[in-house]
Design brief:
Order of helices and strands: EHEEHHHEEEEEHHHHEEEEE
Number of strands: 13
Bound molecules: coenzyme A
CATH superfamily of the largest domain: 4'-phosphopantetheinyl transferase domain
Distance between the termini: 36 Å
Structural class: alpha+beta
Largest sheet: 6 strands, mixed
Number of domains: 2
Helix content: 25-40%
Radius of gyration: 19 Å
Strand order of the largest sheet: 2-1-13-3-7-6
Length: about 290
């Protein structure tokens, strides 16, 4: 999504209903000044005894802020692989470099906890369209928009997640006619005008979550499948052009948070799973007032 979508920069309010027992407190993102050892301390988690199991019937969704103090980000850089550091260095603006670094460092930190290994030990493999994965699992996907990142983890299958800041300017552009299927455009334009921007983002994130689960990137024609999009309708894949039965093999779940200022969705094949939402808290900045650890 373009720069316009990144104009709104919500802080990071606690989400009503978040399972607080799943909060992860990052208390010691140690500053790396020199020496190789410091990298090993760059992500120190205090998870307050949280369970790091990933049951087959759960999809874990973690929320995090990508805005961290510069010295913390320098420490996080040490857990990145050389290719990730090179990619970070290619960003023109410091803010983007920093957000990418934090996004990857937190991804590594979370995966390392699930796998009981060190973040810097993880070796990502990349699919044909650059979807990162781990040979040993778990399946995971991440999405970022402005200062917000969402991570999804599953023990059972390919997963996709997408988040977009709730930005009416972006949604007002007539991108729907370019990207959405005729059925989706028809539903969108039948909605009251003031509802359409949010419905647009709902549709966008559901479509992106689906193509990200498949790992297809832009190789999949975005108008070759339909999703639900009217606000307050359950998230669902309705139809695919390539297989009559495909739609009912997938489940989509809405993860939008009005208070947090974003629209989001997660997609995974199969049924019988539920979303467990968790949140990474940055106690260094103290920017999540009122959050309690259990
Ligand atoms: C892969 C793709 C889907 C990412 O979408 P995005 O909204 O730009 O970015 P997100 O923040 O949601 O996701 C980016 C992350 O997804 C992961 N990713 C990269 N390629 C991926 C792929 N092919 N499939 C799934 N995940 C992928 C990466 O972890 C990446 O983050 P990182 O490199 O910083 O670690 C994008 O490259 C793409 O092809 N988009 C389609 C664009 C479009 O026309 N959408 C219209 C929808 S209606």
């Amino acid at each position: 999504m373009g720069e316009a979508a990144q104009a709104a920069e919500p802080r990071y309010p606690p989400r009503a209903g978040t399972d607080r027992s799943g909060c992860l407190d990052i208390v010691g993102a140690v500053l790396a000044t020199n020496g190789e050892d410091t990298g090993k301390q760059a992500l120190t988690f205090d998870d307050a005894g949280a369970e790091w199991a990933l049951p087959v019937d759960e999809v874990h969704v973690w929320r995090a802020s990508l805005e961290w103090p510069a010295e913390t980000v320098r420490g996080m850089r040490h857990v990145l692989a050389p290719d990730e550091r090179r990619r970070a260095d290619r960003f023109r603006f410091e803010r983007d470099r920093s957000r990418y670094t934090v996004g990857r460092a937190l991804l590594r930190g979370l995966l390392a906890r699930y796998l009981k290994t060190a973040p810097e030990e993880l070796q990502f493999q990349y699919g044909e369209f650059r979807k990162p994965a781990l040979r040993s699992g778990p399946w995971f996907n991440l999405s970022h928009s402005g200062p917000i990142a969402l991570y999804a983890f599953s023990a059972t299958g390919q997963i996709g997640i997408d988040v977009e800041l709730d930005d009416a300017n972006f949604a007002r552009e007539r991108l729907a006619e370019r990207f959405f299927s005729p059925a989706e455009v028809s539903v969108l334009r039948s909605l009251p005008a003031d509802v359409q921007p949010r419905a647009f983002l709902i549709c966008w994130t559901r479509k992106e979550a689906f193509i990200k689960a498949r790992g297809d990137g832009l190789s999949l024609a975005l108008d070759s499948f339909d999703v639900t999009l009217a606000p307050d309708t359950p998230a669902a894949l309705l139809r695919t052009a390539w297989c009559r039965d495909e739609a009912r093999r997938w489940r989509l779940e809405d993860l939008s948070d009005r208070q947090g200022g974003y629209v989001a969705a997660v997609a995974m094949r199969g049924y019988g799973w539920r979303v467990v939402e968790r949140q990474i808290m940055d106690t260094l900045e103290g920017n999540v007032p009122g959050q309690e650890r259990r």
